[in-house]
Write a structure and sequence with these properties.
By secondary structure, the chain is of the alpha/beta class. About 55% of the residues lie in helices and about 10% in strands.
């Protein structure tokens, strides 16, 4: 029975690893030189009277430390004032609303069409705020930026031209990182996001598969939102949900990797855990909602298969937890003569093919973005371990989605300059530390995997040591982050 569960877990990891391997090879095949001069990446199209009115929506909820920064960045967007509208969609319950109102007045006096729409409730959360703003929007194109993003001044000049094609419904740009070098935690996050934007989004776009709006740093055609049924709040990933509904309606999406919009990464483990929980649960909810319509559509089997792998990618986390829990016990049983046999472990070795997919996907992503990519790849083992360390947290999110349990949209705290001394004190206001059961379970898994590592070494199973060590490092790393954050907050409180 244990061997069966383990084999299923390894098969799932192999499946998603093979998908990443396909993406890596597809990327490599299309990464070639083209004849003629290279296009100027700094070339900006000239504005003319045919360009449409754009409404920029800024959904906020208790973002006192970054709200003014975001508003100022959007006020400096290069676009004629008469064709630009900014909506600050403010659901805040703290003094953020006072700061926003003051900043909106500042820019209004300078001739900018900017409005402050303050709701006294959070009905529908972010989706509800965006939907409410659309009832008053005058733009035919709708750009969206979360509070932790800083759009470059030329953002609209680069993203509006693709809409000259009437079939284009959404344009997504690449996320950058404002504070990637702050800590090992932010470096790991940047590493993972880079793979999504430099590889997954690019390959799916080039291959004609469905891509997703990432909730921010993108721009929609208003008609597309309306045709697809509008923003809906029955999942925690309203962006992924609307993306698939729109593409199933026949709208085309464009991805512009050359346009980077920098953003702030979560600086604390509790904030990251909350963010990952929301993304994982929302993706699971969306897959339950969308997979049926996707497979009943007339789309090609290639789009259906890749869409299914895309929507269900987070399902790997329960199987990571299963494999982590069973790896050492199966090795122990094998060495005392009660295991599944050498053939079983030889077949399980095929899982290394999936690992190659994970590795190459990261390698090509880093190479596409950074000249020193070969140095950055030294972070890969830590990234893999850290991703595994969040398996329990994300597994809980998936089980809640499968049970239909509803939960609120929990914001990710933002702190503007993440390296300032006051960051830890701000945590007390926006990221209250607590020790939920999952923290203790992660600590237990650290000790459990370390014991498994000792068993693996004891029986001289040297080929299995790196695998088992990765589990121990992953849960250990998350536990260290837990302890470090608790220690900092305890020191501030004392």
């Amino acid at each position: 029975m244990l061997a069966t569960f383990y084999a299923v877990g390894m098969a799932v990891l192999l499946l998603y690893g093979l998908n990443l391997l396909w993406m890596a090879l597809f990327h490599a095949r299309h990464e070639r030189l083209f004849p003629g001069a290279a296009p100027d990446p700094n070339a900006i199209p000239e504005f003319d009277e045919t360009w449409p009115v754009v409404t920029v929506q800024l959904p906020l909820y208790n973002e006192a430390y970054v709200a003014e920064r975001l508003i100022d960045a959007c006020a400096h967007l290069s676009y004629p004032n008469r064709r630009l509208e900014i909506q600050v969609l403010d659901d805040s319950t703290d003094h953020t609303s006072v700061l926003v109102a003051r900043r909106v007045r500042h820019w209004k006096t300078r001739g900018l069409d900017i409005t402050h729409l303050h709701r006294t409730h959070r009905e529908g959360f972010k989706a509800g705020a965006l939907k409410n703003g659309l009832t008053r929007a005058r733009g035919s194109l709708i750009a969206v930026f979360d509070a932790d993003f800083i759009p470059p001044t030329d953002f609209l000049l680069r993203t509006v031209p693709p809409f000259r094609d009437p079939s284009v419904g959404m344009v997504q740009t690449r996320w950058g990182h404002l504070n990637a070098q702050r800590s090992i935690l932010t470096q790991i996050q940047a590493f993972g996001l880079d793979m999504h934007f430099a590889l997954e989004q690019r390959v799916r776009s080039l291959a004609g598969c469905f891509i997703n709006f990432n909730g921010t740093a993108g721009i929609w055609r208003l008609a597309t939102i309306q045709d697809a049924g509008g923003w809906q709040s029955d999942t925690l990933t309203e962006d992924l949900d609307l993306s698939y509904r729109a593409q199933l309606r026949g709208w085309q999406f464009r991805y512009l990797p050359q346009v980077e919009v920098p953003a702030e990464l979560p600086v604390g483990i509790s904030a990251l855990r909350s963010q990952q929980f929301r993304w994982t649960k929302g993706a699971a909810q969306t897959s339950l909602k969308i997979l049926g319509p996707l497979w009943r559509s007339d789309r090609s089997k290639r789009i259906k298969v890749e869409g299914t792998l895309h929507l269900t990618a987070h399902i790997i986390f329960p199987f990571v937890a299963i494999v982590a829990a069973l790896h050492a016990p199966l090795l122990f049983l094998e060495n005392v003569g009660r295991g599944p046999g050498p053939l079983f472990f030889s077949l399980m070795g095929l899982g290394l093919i999936g690992f190659v997919g994970f590795f190459l996907a990261q390698l090509f992503a880093q190479r596409a973005l950074y000249p020193d990519w070969y140095k950055r790849m030294a972070l890969f083992p830590v990234f893999m371990a850290g991703s595994m360390g969040l398996a329990l947290n994300n597994t809980r999110a998936i089980f809640q989605a499968l049970r239909g349990k509803q939960s609120p949209f929990v914001r990710t705290p933002k702190y503007d300059k993440a390296d300032r001394v006051t960051t830890n004190r701000i945590h007390l206001n926006y990221d209250a530390v607590r020790l939920p059961f999952i923290v203790w379970l992660e600590a237990f898994m650290t000790l459990y995997c370390l014991a498994g590592l000792a068993v693996t070494v004891y029986f001289n199973e040297w080929a299995a040591v790196p695998f088992q060590a990765t589990f121990a490092l992953g849960f250990g790393l998350i536990s260290v982050f837990n302890v470090d954050q608790y220690r900092k907050h305890h020191r501030i409180n004392s």
